[in-house]
Design brief:
Elements: H1 9-20, H2 26-33, H3 37-49, E1 69-77, E2 96-101, E3 108-114, H4 117-128, E4 133-140
Antiparallel strand pairs: 1-3, 1-4, 2-3
């Protein structure tokens, strides 16, 4: 497990600004936190180096890409399945965006994005066909909210 690091309020504000918009310019961040762009760059580089910032992302409108349906599928595995082997059920399934392994019931939660219900059934059936899954429960997303968006 990663050891927590101590950050000062300026580092925390820089992180919050990058979470809000990862393409924000160094000059813009500097104006908000009262630092020069080179000083902001040094802080961001340090935050990346110590592993606080691990990457940058792009938010995508999946409906425009032909996958408007989003669902979470609870996955229950046979008792002898290793936790490290759980994600393997999604191998070669690009519709499975993320598999979260869990403590307790269920064993894992899969985030799936698909074209329609038939496509969702196909993806779930493919995961089930591995023989490792002993049960599923699927919840379709009606809407989503995230802070700052």
């Amino acid at each position: 497990m990663d050891k927590p690091v101590q950050l000062d309020p300026t580092d925390e504000e820089i992180i919050a600004l990058l979470i809000e918009d990862s393409r924000r310019s160094l000059a813009d961040i500097g104006r908000v936190v009262s630092l020069s762009p080179p000083a902001v760059k040094r802080r961001i580089d340090r935050l990346e180096e110590i592993g606080v910032i691990t990457g940058y992302t792009t938010l995508v409108n999946h409906a425009k890409l032909g996958r408007p349906l989003e669902a979470f599928t609870e996955l229950r595995f046979a008792g002898n399945t290793r936790v490290d082997d759980i994600a393997g059920v999604a191998k070669n399934l690009p519709e499975v965006q993320t598999i979260y392994t869990m403590a307790g019931d269920p064993d894992a939660l899969a985030l799936i994005r698909v074209r329609d219900v038939e496509d969702l059934k196909r993806v779930i059936d493919r995961m089930r066909s591995t023989g490792k899954i002993v049960g599923t429960k699927t919840l379709m997303v009606l809407g989503a909210w995230s802070p700052g968006r």
